[in-house]
Write a structure and sequence with these properties.
It is a single chain. This protein is mainly beta and 362 residues long. It has a single domain, classed as Methylamine Dehydrogenase, Chain H (7 Propeller). The protein is 1% helix and 41% strand. The chain contains 1 helix and 27 strands. The strands form 7 sheets. The chain has a 4-stranded antiparallel sheet, with no helix packed on it. Strands 7-8-9-10 form a 4-stranded antiparallel sheet. The longest helix is centred in the middle third of the chain and has 4 residues. 51% of the residues are buried.
């Protein structure tokens, strides 16, 4: 059976799961009492490298890495991610650790709070600030979302290292077509529902929650917004609404199948003050036609009432066959599907709040 590693970052440490038959076995917590908001699994080299962004209330944020699937961890003597002194800024949190595609071996991006992008060329051991984004004239106007003001999503083109897209809360989508030397806002068609009528389609300032990249067409992107689910077919230049038959268009997470084009997943939440699953029903919605239609998936998920909220990085897919899907919620439950979401099982329960999940064949 395919050996899949499932990494679950929680409010109080990291848990690592391996599937044994139909059951999941977890180790942890690694980094106990540290909030783990970001995990990256880099499978480009001869052996997988795990990257973890952990927050210690005493020592502050740091990036750790492991080359033996979590048996041991290394932390650089100097902070891997830190703001240069001339910025007058200090790191609050690492929200994203993204190994770039095959076109950029060794490159890992880190998205941070406050909103900035860092780049590593040594597999995530040291990072440098991408000043072109930090010094963008629109950056001082980015606001803080409810979870803070951060670069929380990084998407890279698998065949073109020059194409990099980021999502900022709440600055919107920015993309670079020259390897990060320059950046442009890329939000045409994305609505900022919290603004007054007549001002809801600004150049920037949207509260984008997450972006996922299509498997068959890297220029096709899926976007879960603060109100609205969108698709772009031109690498983010223009966006169109695809949330038509969803029970709610609010949510935090979106993920795409790693091998099947046109297949993506969302976990809708009601847009009212509750921000819980519509009708209190735990359901993942899948599209198989790039957002033309959506199908609810609930076989094996808990019956109503269900109140678990899935955060922006708490849903993912793996690269195994036929395709695994995973999500965790703030109730400390993690659900896994090995058949593209057709059926689910409870992989872990009673964990601290789940902040992020990542999975890969190892």
């Amino acid at each position: 059976m395919t050996d899949v590693l499932l990494a679950v970052g929680t409010q109080k440490g990291l848990f690592l799961g391996r599937r044994r038959g139909r059951d999941w076995q977890f180790t942890g917590p690694h980094f106990p009492m540290q909030a783990v908001y970001s995990v990256g699994i880099d499978t480009r080299g001869p052996r997988p490298r795990l990257l973890v962004g952990a927050d210690s209330s005493h020592w502050g944020p740091s990036v750790f890495h492991s080359d033996d699937l979590g048996e041991t961890w290394q932390e650089p003597a100097r902070p891997a991610v830190r703001f240069p002194e001339d910025t007058g800024t200090s790191l609050e949190r690492v929200w994203q650790l993204h190994p770039a595609g095959p076109a950029a071996p060794g490159v890992v991006y880190a998205g941070t709070q406050p909103g900035a992008l860092f780049r590593s060329e040594d597999g995530g051991e040291t990072f440098s600030l991408v000043r072109s984004l930090w010094e963008h004239p629109q950056r001082p106007q980015w606001e803080a979302g409810f979870g803070g003001q951060a670069v929380h999503t990084v998407v890279t083109h698998p065949a073109d290292a020059e194409q990099v897209t980021v999502a900022v809360s709440t600055g919107g989508v920015y993309r670079s077509q020259d390897g990060g030397r320059s950046w442009s806002p890329s939000n045409q068609g994305v609505q900022a529902t919290f603004l007054p009528p007549g001002r809801r389609f600004p150049e920037f300032g949207q509260c984008v929650h997450k972006i996922a990249q299509d498997a068959a067409d890297p220029d096709r992107l899926y976007l879960q917004n603060h109100g609205g689910v969108y698709r772009s077919d031109d690498a983010g230049a223009r966006w169109s609404d695809i949330g038509g038959n969803l029970p709610a268009d609010f949510g935090f997470a979106v993920a795409a199948h790693k091998a099947r084009g046109g297949v993506a997943y969302v976990f809708p939440l009601s847009a009212d003050a509750h921000r819980m699953p519509p009708e209190y029903r735990c359901r993942v919605f899948r599209t198989e036609d790039a957002g033309g239609s959506w199908t609810p998936l609930s076989d094996g998920l808990p019956d109503a009432p269900s109140y678990g909220v899935v955060l922006r990085d708490a849903m993912c897919t793996d690269d195994a066959e036929p395709g695994g899907v995973y999500f965790g919620n703030r109730n400390g439950e993690v659900y896994a599907s090995s058949d593209q979401g057709d059926s689910w099982q409870l992989a872990a329960a009673h964990l601290p709040d789940v902040l992020c999940v990542r999975a890969a064949e190892v």
